[in-house]
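Per your request, structure below.
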């Protein structure tokens, strides 16, 4: 199985009709007269301190200046990064003052449930596509594994003994690791955490053998507390030139998991336009570019209609993949 998770996927079938109709100029004028009239929350479904948390806090700070109201992050981790978006879909008013990070697990997880608790298209107003993650695999600096090949050899000789952590069951990085195990014929033990920062802490503390997650591990590799075994980008990362990609290691995998920002369904399209424009300018600013560079996060900007078309197509892909792999969760 190949995990289709690179930016090339987003360029296909651009002609899909975007969910949510064309933005209407009169609506924009009405929205500008009243929005925002109080602070805006961006619900980040991971613990504080991870790369997405830091990137979206930067977006919030920049949008605060542009919109004249505080734009603040509220962390609500849980359920593999889907608790926060689900809460926004089910409880937030569609007035533009409560938003959430939208990532691929939110599109995938409903189809893993016996009774889906949200519809990733109908229950959200998708606003903007922003960026993705640098994923990779890292171990403690004193680990027995000097290379990826060392890790695979040990896992092959010791089924189930080697454990690894991700940010949750059914996340993109978890599925990538399942794909690798299938290809290699090995069995690893998955130890999910609520976010990559907690996962890194567990590996450094010796509770888990390796982390397979976004780049919260990168500073610890740079200060020699950890060792990177692989990166999951299309090409090697500039600041880790000696670390091979999954493709170089023999896997047809490029994993960046692009994400954006969405709100609950029914938002006024004028409000959407105001939010999109403010967040686009923040995303493309030198300040946010510096944050993304710090975590090696690629720029994956998509305007509202393009992002909605991507979401609609990606939902179909995720639903088909869940069926094909028979992925299920309790509940």
């Amino acid at each position: 199985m190949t995990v289709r998770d690179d930016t090339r996927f987003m360029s296909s079938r651009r002609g899909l009709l975007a969910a949510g109709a064309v933005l209407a100029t009169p609506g924009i004028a009405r929205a500008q007269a009243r929005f925002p009239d109080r602070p805006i929350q961006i619900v980040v479904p991971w613990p504080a301190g991870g790369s997405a948390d830091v990137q979206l806090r930067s977006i919030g700070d920049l949008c605060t200046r542009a919109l004249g109201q505080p734009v603040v992050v509220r962390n609500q981790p849980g359920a593999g990064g889907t608790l926060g978006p689900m809460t926004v879909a089910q409880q937030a008013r569609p007035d533009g003052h409560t938003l959430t990070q939208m990532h691929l697990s939110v599109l995938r997880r409903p189809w893993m449930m016996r009774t889906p608790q949200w519809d990733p298209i109908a229950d959200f107003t998708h606003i903007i596509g922003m960026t993705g993650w640098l994923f990779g695999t890292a171990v403690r600096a004193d680990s027995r594994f000097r290379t990826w090949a060392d890790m695979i050899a040990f896992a092959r000789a010791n089924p189930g003994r080697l454990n690894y952590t991700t940010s949750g069951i059914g996340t993109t990085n978890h599925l990538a690791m399942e794909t690798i195990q299938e290809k290699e014929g090995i069995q690893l033990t998955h130890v999910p955490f609520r976010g990559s920062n907690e996962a890194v802490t567990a590996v450094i503390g010796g509770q888990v053998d390796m982390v397979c997650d976004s780049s919260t591990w990168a500073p610890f590799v740079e200060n020699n507390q950890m060792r990177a075994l692989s990166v999951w980008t299309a090409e090697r990362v500039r600041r880790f030139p000696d670390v091979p990609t999954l493709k170089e290691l023999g896997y047809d995998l490029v994993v960046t998991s692009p994400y954006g920002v969405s709100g609950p369904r029914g938002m006024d399209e004028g409000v959407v336009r105001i939010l999109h424009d403010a967040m686009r300018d923040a995303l493309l600013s030198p300040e946010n570019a510096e944050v993304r560079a710090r975590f090696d996060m690629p720029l994956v900007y998509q305007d509202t209609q393009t992002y909605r078309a991507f979401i609609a197509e990606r939902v179909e892909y995720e639903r088909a993949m869940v069926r094909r792999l028979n992925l299920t969760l309790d509940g």
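The CA atoms of residues 33 and 166 lie 44 Å apart.

Regards,
D.
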